[in-house]
Each structure stands twice: as C-alpha cells, then as structure tokens.
Specification:
The chain has about 500 residues and is of the alpha/beta class. It has three domains: about 5-225, 3-Layer(aba) Sandwich (Aminopeptidase); about 245-390 and about 460-510, Vaccinia Virus protein VP39 (Rossmann fold); about 390-460, no CATH class. About 30% of the residues lie in helices and about 25% in strands. It contains 16 helices and 20 strands. Strands 1-2-3-4-5-8-7-6 form an eight-stranded mixed β-sheet. A seven-stranded mixed β-sheet has the order 11-10-9-12-13-20-19, with helices on both faces. The chain is elongated and about 80 Å long.
C-alpha cells in the first residue's frame, strides 16, 4: 500500500466535533500499544479517556491531522505550535496508526502535514517507538542529534510545558542520549527489535530507554537537511493536485480587488476578449476556472449567456455571491476542468489567469486545453491566458533542473505573497526550472481561523511556441499569441519585455 491511496486532512483542535474525538479515542484504544511489565496493568491495552483527548485538542494552539482510507480513520496526529521568544516550535503530542496500516508511510505523511512551516525553529515528539522517531526525521529531512538537542535544552524546558501537561517532565539529555521521564509505562518489549530494523537505514542516535522514559525526538531549523530525492519531490505533488486545490482555497480567504491588484482589471480584460473574439450579446460563454466570478459576471452584465465553472467550492461561493449582488443569472458548475462533462458546447470558452499552468505535469495542463476544445462548438472561439516562461526565467535568481537536483528546493525562502497580494513575480521567492518551465514557490498561509500552513506550490509557464503546440495537439487553432501586461492587454509588447508577464492566446476550434 502507498500513501497516495489515502486522504489526509487538517483541523483546528477545538473545531474537532465530538464524533471525531470519539473516533480518535477508539483508534488509540485498539491500536496504540500495551502496558509494560513495570505497570500494574502489564500486558493490557493502553486506553485513553475522553477527557485526556480533550486536554490535548482543546487548546488554541492545537491541531489534528487525520488519515483516512475509504472513509475509515486509519491514523491521526495531534499537535500544537507555540511561539517562545519569537521562535516557533511545532510538536506532535500523539501519533497513532492502525496496526494493519503501519509501515506504509502514513506516520511520515501525517508528520509532514503537521510541520508545514519551514521557518519554524524546532519540530519534535516524545515516543518510545523508534519508527515514530524515524518518521520525524523523514518528515523534517533532519536527523535527531542529542548534542544539538542538548544545546537547546533550556529552550525545550521552557517550551514543552506550554504544549501539553505530560511534557512538564524532567529531561535527560547528553551527547549520546535524549530522553524525557514522562512516567508512561508503555511496553518496551519490541523496542530492541525495532531499533535493529531502523538501523538498517541509519545509526540509532538517541540511546536506550528506562522504565517510564520516552525518547525526546527533536530537530532544529539550523540543522543541515538531508538530500532530497525524486521520490520526495513526487510526494510534494500528487496527481490529484491536492496542493493546488488547498493553496487556491487558502488564497480565496481575504483575496479581493483591494488587496490583490491582479483582480482589478476584469472590465478591460472582457473588453479586449469581446473585441478579439468578435462576440455579440446573446452568445453562450463558458468560463473555465472562474475564480471569484469577476469575468463571468461581467460577461453576464453585457448580455451573454454564461456558465461559470471552478474546481473550488470556496471560489464558486464567492462567484455566486458576486452574481447575486449584481442581480445576474449564471449557471454555476463545480467540476475539475480536466474531467469536465457538460453535454453541450458553447460559442466561446475563456480560461484565464494561471488555470492552464497550475499543475506541475504537462499532461494535466494539456487536459484543461483539451477541455476547451471539447466544449467549443465548431467554429467557436476561445481566449486563454498563461504566465510567461520567458520573463520568469529572465528575472529568476534561482535556476536549475529540479528533477536532476531536487535539493534546489531547499534554497527557496518562504513567502506569503499568494495570501497577501497574489503577486508571484518577486524573483527573491521563486525557483525557475529551466528544463521543464515549472516555477516553484514556498507559500505560507495564516488567515483567520485557518491553521498556518506552508505548501510547495508550482506553476507551469509557457513560451509562445509551447502554447501554440499545446493548442495544435488538442485540436485548437491559435490565431494570436500576444505578450501582455496586467491591465493593458491592448498594448503591443515584445515577448522579452519584462512587463509582459502573461501570454494571451485567442483562436478557434476549426
């Protein structure tokens, strides 16, 4: 089994409903472990009470990660993130995986989901399970080093009690060991054999455990990260595009024409499209990837019959509200453009602002263009905009072949541009893969009640000949590919003009 078959989600601890808390409790009681020989309950399953679950999740800083398979909960992590003297520490207070699903990478995936801010100071967990420590190391790309933990022991003593009551325990850290005396008498029967298994990949560093001890697994931002592999890179971007969906859903929270200037020019953009496509009122228009509906509603106000589609319910909600506010009747469709089936065709299809290009794989982006062709009536016309590869590579300060050298990802500094302004052209915050045309960014989101997260986001950018080739392969004829700048789509520019951050392509289905 691989983690690609599982669904992972994140929720603020206080927002976890009672039914969800009970699911955690039952999974823990059935699959966590057994009491050790030092306990009066030796050999019996360790169980947790509802109040103990509540103590962990009912904190402002707490979060819960869930792993499900076919709707069944197969793993979870409870964690907390606190800031001590401007240094953030993210700690997982409980990690449980169903016995039948262990050793399938679920724990590592949960921890990767929990520790998503690359500029936190520290990450960690306390555990008597060597595989949990290895999952911590795999998730953070760093090794647990007792000497480094010892150097930061004062910080840990101050931070851990603010995360959970059981972490108020004494720490025992030296150059060859790192332990915390939680008094948790879990069975250590399998510890020696588990250490032998994990040592097949790397030496064990945290020493031995005594009764009532757990390992103090912690890593710190200044530590060197291990080399990334091609598999690591693939793990960032699954074929379903969940990173894309979550990033753009996050971006929707608080994004409007005041804070995001790229949204302001929809009236001018519709002017240009209507003129170039030769459209007249009454024509049917499909807006693929409609976002907040600014273009779709503008077309409707001009007398066009509009269908607006987006894969995000969050953005569609904004679009519906916009249409209602302006008294316009539109048809809204919640669907992924790559598999869109409407059973009809349109006089015109528009697909604007990084819908084509929002995926790392060319086949996913090309599937969107194929959908444009599929939903155009013969002779129907289209307008599509993508981001310029020419300009991105010209201004980029970080460049290289990411597939050949995934470690280039480490050099990207995190930013909040998608959240704050939607401006993604600052060369200080992106990496240009000059082989594939893909741009990589580390985007952080911390909006309202949403938990702070960081995602490695990418988009495919195009040169004019690449875009024309995609159109040809999907049955479209590109008549014009125009380098344009924001708010001035009618101004002629050269492709290497650094103001020309987009390409506007118009054409028809022959």
């Amino acid at each position: 089994m691989t983690t690609s078959r599982y669904q992972f989600s994140m929720i603020a601890g206080r927002d976890l409903p009672e039914k969800g808390r009970e699911r955690l409790r039952l999974l823990f009681n059935e699959h966590y472990g057994r009491w050790g020989s030092e306990s009066s309950r030796a050999g019996r399953r360790i169980c947790i009470s509802r109040s103990a679950i509540a103590d962990l999740v009912d904190r402002d800083e707490a979060f819960v990660l869930l792993a499900q398979h076919g709707g069944v909960l197969v793993g979870y992590a409870i964690g907390a993130r606190v800031v001590i003297n401007e240094r953030a520490i993210s700690w997982v207070t409980q990690l449980v995986v169903h016995t039948d699903y262990q050793r399938n990478g679920i724990a590592t995936k949960l921890l990767k989901s929990a520790w998503r801010l690359s500029d936190d100071f520290a990450w960690g967990l306390a555990s008597a399970n060597p595989f949990a420590i290895r999952a911590l190391e795999a998730a953070t790309l760093r090794r647990c080093n007792p000497e480094i933990i010892a150097q930061n022991v004062d910080f840990m003593k101050h931070a851990l009690p603010k995360i959970a009551k059981y972490l108020e325990a004494p720490l025992n850290v030296g150059n060859d060991h790192a332990r915390i005396a939680t008094g948790f008498l879990v069975s250590h029967d399998d510890v020696a054999s588990s250490i032998a298994k994990v040592e097949a990949t790397a030496p064990w560093t945290l020493g031995e455990l005594g009764a009532g001890d757990e390992w103090l697994g912690a890593v710190f931002n200044p530590q060197a990260q291990r080399d990334l592999t091609a598999d690591d890179l693939d793990d960032f971007f699954d074929s379903g595009g969940t990173v894309v969906a979550e990033a753009y859903d996050r971006m929707a929270q608080g994004a409007d024409e005041r804070s995001h200037p790229w949204m302001r020019h929809y009236g001018h953009e519709v002017d240009v499209i209507v003129k170039l496509l030769g459209l007249t009122p009454g024509a049917t228009v499909l807006d693929m990837g409609c976002g907040n509906g600014r273009h779709a509603v503008e077309f409707a106000t001009r007398g066009f019959a509009v269908t607006a589609m987006d894969r995000s319910e969050v953005w569609l909600g904004l679009a519906r509200a916009r249409a209602k506010e302006q008294g316009q009747e539109l048809q809204f469709v919640h669907a992924d453009a790559r598999g869109l089936e409407l059973g009809r065709t349109f006089d015109a299809v528009i697909c604007l602002f990084d819908v084509v290009g929002s995926f790392r794989r060319d086949e996913d982006n090309e599937a969107i263009v194929a959908a444009i062709a599929r939903y155009l009536a013969p002779g129907g016309r289209f307008a599509l905009s993508v981001l310029s590869r020419t300009v991105a590579e010209a201004i980029a300060t970080l460049k290289g072949d990411v597939v050949a050298n995934p470690n280039l990802i480490h050099a990207i500094p995190p930013a909040t541009t998608m959240q704050d302004t939607g401006g993604i052209w600052d060369p200080a915050y992106f990496l240009a893969d000059t082989t594939s045309g893909v741009i990589y960014r580390r985007e952080q989101f911390d909006i309202g009640t949403a938990l702070p997260v960081e995602m490695l986001v990418c988009d495919r950018r195009y040169m004019p000949d690449e875009l024309c080739a995609v159109c040809r392969r999907t049955g479209l004829k590109a008549e014009i590919v125009r380098p344009v700048r924001l708010g001035r789509w009618d101004e002629p520019l050269q492709v290497n003009d650094r103001r020309a951050t987009e390409l506007l392509c118009v054409g028809l289905r022959p």
